[in-house]
Amino acid sequence: MPQTAYKQAYPKLSGFYFFYFTLFGAVIPYISLYYQSLGLDAIQIGQLMAVFVGTKIIAPNLLGWLADRSGEPVYWLRWMGFLTLLSATGFLFLNSFSGLLLTVFFFSFFFHAALPLFESYTFSNLAGLKERYGQIRLWGSVGFIVAVMGVGWQLQTTADSAYQIYPFVLWGISLVVFFTMFSVQDFKVSKPVEETTDHALSFLTILQRPWVISLLLVTVLVQFSHGAYYSFYSIFLEAHGYDQTAIAWLWSVGVIAEIGVFFFMPWLFRSFSVKLLLIISLMLTLARWLMIPWVVDWLSLLILAQTFHAASYGLLHAAAIHLIDEHFHGANQSRGQAIYASASHGFGGGVGMLVAGYAWQSGGANLAFGISAFAILIALVITWKWVNK
Fold it and tell me: Long-range pairs for 164-173 at CB < 8 Å and ≥24 separation?
């Protein structure tokens, strides 16, 4: 991809990530607190969070298949934007557990289905400059920070009415995301007539490669380990006396560190092997989960633990998505990104949040984050023994 074309595509690609992850940043840090304000217990909160990420098991694969089959990913992307907005309306009217379960299922299904479509669209635009992905994706992290700080400020300043306003905040951001998805330039993916390389291999043939299986197992375990963090980190901080502003800043520290990793991604991949980067990332993630329950009353150490988000999410995600794109080409491209999203964030994240709910109810933060740390130990063994790239 020529530099001129890259500069032209950069604003639109980065703009999508900014607004998409603004919505994500309004949901993940605060929705568990919203559920708690409605009187739901830890198991119910864990179940709702599991549904939120669990729909990634189905949604990306279904939409990836439709996009690859039709060759029109942007068409389906726009539909996902509309249906995300429509389903977000449920937050305005439903606050029972069963009503929220239904709302969260449809909202998350359409919301999560959109991202793998856009990931494949992004890599199609980047062509020969795929190492620049991180510098585009970092704008998603910026959007996440804007949402975390903005929603945190709203919850802090509106006090007693904060969680009555929160559903309207989600709906408003969903409206912006809807318009953003419609601004994406339409294109059709050309379908190769005859190929003799990996492009011609069937999706299942590629999926059965040992390297691909190892990579997916590692990403499943990593996202499983995030279950306690995404579901209960804000609740944990609030229970230890942190106000909404402090909670927002702590979430933001992690994402700022993530931005740094995305910015230096081209240099990192040129300077170090993927295996070494994965091992370092997993070791820092292990340290993070072990630290959080024990250093919660020491702000400086808690901030240090949050900087490890650069490794536990930023570096691991960028490495995985880059490698998935290397293995899944042409007509398999959207499904490649979809299987990564569904296996790691969907299955791994969903089961992780479900387990975290029961662990939190019975053993609190020590048990929940202890399980997270154990999952990372297994991921380290798999990476060390079977990841050879």
Answer: 166/30, 166/34, 167/34, 167/91, 167/92, 168/92, 169/26, 170/23, 170/26, 170/27, 170/88, 170/91, 171/85, 171/88, 171/89, 171/91, 171/92, 173/19, 173/22, 173/23, 173/26, 173/147
